[in-house]
Every structure is written in C-alpha cells, then in structure tokens.
Amino acid sequence: MPRVNSLPGVPRWAALAAHAVPWVVLPSSLWRVALVLRLPVSDYGPGFGESLYVLALSAVSEGLALLTLGLVRPWGEVVPRWIPLIGGRPVRPLAAVVPAALGAVALAVIWAYAFRNVGGGLDSGTGPGGMGSPAQDAFLVLCYAPLLLWAPLLMAVTVAYYHRRTVRPSAGEQPPGLPQGRQERLRARYR
User: Fold this and answer.
1) 176 within 8 A of 167, measured Cβ to Cβ
2) Which of 14, 31, 47, 134 is the most exposed place for a label (fewest CB within 10 A)?
3) How far from chain centre, in Å, is Cα 165?
C-alpha cells in the first residue's frame, strides 16, 4: 500500500482520496498546456489571450485540487504561521467544510453538464467542442474523464473532515483526530 501523510485519526481511505484529487485534475491540465504549446492534441490553436486564460485555468484547477489536501493535513486544522493576520489560529470546521462542500456541488454540476453529450460527437467530426479528429477527440475525453471523480472524492473527504472535527466522543473515549497534546504541539509548530 502506498504511504500517505495525514493527521492521526484521518481514515486511510480519506487520505488516499485527498491525495488522489490533484492526480485526477492533472491530465486535463496537461492537455490544456499541450493545446497552448500547439502539440497535436487538437486542430484548434488558441490565440495569445486564450492561451493565457487556458494556462491560468490549469494553474487554478491544480491549486484548488491541492487545497483538498488541507482536509487531511495539519494546515487544515491550524492556519500556517506564515499567513498574515490569521497564522497560528485554529481553523473552524465550517470554514473548511462549507467551501469544500459548495465546491464539490459546483464541480458535480459543471462536469455533469460538460459531459452530457460527449459520446454523441466522437466520430461525427464535430466531437466534444469540435476540437479535431476522432482520435484527438477521444484523447480529449480520456484526459477530461478523470475530472468526473473530482466532485465525489472532494465530497467524501469533506464529510470525513467534518465528522472528524465535529463528532463528540462518548464519555471516556479519545476524540477522533489528534491524540491528546498533539493539537497544542501542532499549534506551537506553526507559531
């Protein structure tokens, strides 16, 4: 099994899911970079302004995907000290859960809409967005299909984070998450 870094108390499946999110976003980002570099992934060649937009979209997508790691890493519980004004403070659970859940819902809507007619145009010459030959369109779908996993992975990790940060243990049980004393040591590390 691969080793993944996460906080104590994070379920292994949640840590693996959080670490998978940047990898499911990467193929589409690389396809967009290839498009800008005019590699033969499409018959379409974007102009200068479009190229900047496409590169920015790839960078923002990967950045947002990497934020999923915060739901299983220390900086999802205590803001890193180097961040001005709020560094070293604990992260309130809903401050992470609400944006993550809204993001997961938005991603589900976006990708359900984007993929609704993909299969119909692969061999018609128009393809998904009319990007090129049938082989180029198939490669486009192959690169973008992993994005369908982004929303469910993010929602699952979000639910695990919420449960770990808010569920109260029964009398005498150790709370989920950090062992006793670890939260204080974690806060001290980021000061």
Assistant:
1) yes
2) 47
3) 20
Instruction: Determine contact, residues 4/16, Cβ cutoff 8 Å.
Output: yes
Which stretches within the chain are classed as H helix?
12-36, 48-67, 93-114, 134-144, 150-166, 182-189
- For residues 21, 26, 56 and 60, what is the CA-based torsion angle, rounded to 10 degrees? 10
Residues linked to residue 78 through DSSP beta bridges, in sequence order = 90
Give CA separation, 136 vs 42, 139, 146, 161, 177, in Å: 6, 5, 17, 39, 46
Q: How many domains does the chain have?
A: 1
pTM: 0.81
Answer whether 131's CB lies under 8 Å from 34's CB.
Answer: no
183 lies in a domain?
no
DSSP reduced 3-state for 90: strand
Q: Which residues contact 39 (CB under 8 A, 6 or more apart)?
A: none
Flag whether 59 is in a domain.
yes
